[in-house]
Design a protein that fits this description.
It contains one helix and 22 strands. The protein is mainly β. A seven-stranded mixed β-sheet has the order 1-20-17-22-15-13-14. Strand 2 and strand 3 form a beta hairpin. The longest helix has 4 residues.
C-alpha cells in the first residue's frame, strides 16, 4: 500500500515572516484525516525570512528534528545550548520533561528553508537533551544513510522512540532499491527534486505513507533528496 500525500494538499501558514506547509495537522490547520502517521506527528516545510523566527516557547514529551535545506538556523534553549544549524545539518532536541527554545534565521539577508519534524517519544518526562550533526554527503549518495536512530548506532543521533530517519541524495537517472521489513511501516518525504516512487511520480513536498510493501524502488528524474522514516506499526 502506497498512499500519496500531495504537496498541494498540505495545510498552509503564511504570516509574512513565516511560510509553512504542513503535511499533518498543525497550528491553525486541522484535518482529522491528517493527524500524523504512527509516532510521526509533524512534518512542516518552513521558510523564514531574514532575521525573523520563533520566539522562546516551551515543549515537552516530543522528539523534535530540524533538517536545514538552505540557509542557517540559530538555536537557543533553556538547557544552555546555543548553536547555528547550517544547510545539511540535522538537529535533534528531546523535549522530555520540558524545555524552552527559540529558532531564528541566522542571516540578515538570506531566507532559511528547513524541515521541522516531530516524533512522539515512547517514554514520557525523561531528561531533555540536544544534539546536532553534519553527516557525510558521500554516505547519502544514491543510498539511504541513517541519521536518527533509537540507539544512536553508527553515529546517528539518538531518539527516544523505535523510529529511524534516513536520508538519500540521488543524482539524476539514479535508481535506489530499498528492502522493507514486513513488521514496520514507512513514510517517505521528498525534500528536493523529482523522482518516481514505485512508479508514481513525486516532487518536492510530496509524501507517501507506505505499509505492507516489501520494497521501494526510487528512480530520480532530476537530482533529488528523500527522507525515509522507519516506524513501528
Amino acid at each position: 500500500m502506497l498512499i500519496k500525500r500531495d504537496r498541494n494538499e498540505r495545510g498552509p501558514t503564511d504570516i509574512g515572516w513565516l511560510n509553512s506547509q504542513h503535511s499533518f495537522s498543525f497550528g491553525g490547520y486541522y484535518d482529522p484525516a491528517q493527524m500524523g502517521y504512527g509516532p510521526l506527528r509533524v512534518i512542516n516545510e518552513d521558510r523564514v525570512v531574514p532575521s525573523a523566527g520563533f520566539q522562546t516557547h516551551p515543549h515537552s514529551n516530543m522528539e523534535i528534528i530540524s533538517y536545514v535545506l538552505s540557509g542557517a538556523l540559530a538555536h537557543k534553549d533553556s538547557m544552555g545550548n546555543g548553536s547555528t544549524i547550517t544547510a545539511g545539518e540535522v538537529q535533534l532536541m528531546s523535549a522530555g520533561s520540558g524545555v524552552s527554545h527559540s529558532e531564528f534565521n541566522a542571516s540578515n539577508d538570506e531566507a532559511v528553508h528547513f524541515l521541522q519534524i516531530w516524533i512522539v517519544p515512547n517514554k514520557s518526562n525523561t531528561q531533555p537533551g540536544y544534539a546536532q550533526k553534519r553527516f557525510d554527503e558521500a554516505d547519502m549518495h544514491n543510498r539511504f544513510h541513517v541519521v536518527v536512530a533509537p540507539d544512536g548506532a553508527e553515529g546517528a543521533l539518538a531518539i527516544k522512540q523505535d523510529a529511524r530517519l534516513a536520508i538519500a541524495k540521488l543524482e539524476s537517472g539514479a535508481t535506489l532499491n530499498q528492502t522493507l521489513a514486513d513488521n514496520r511501516k514507512y513514510w517517505i518525504q521528498v525534500a528536493r527534486g523529482e523522482l518516481s516512487v514505485n512508479g508514481e511520480i513525486a516532487k518536492a513536498g510530496d509524501g507517501f505513507a507506505v505499509d505492507q510493501e516489501t520494497q521501494l524502488v526510487l528512480l530520480a528524474q532530476a537530482p533529488a533528496e528523500v527522507l525515509l522514516f522507519d516506524l513501528p506499526r
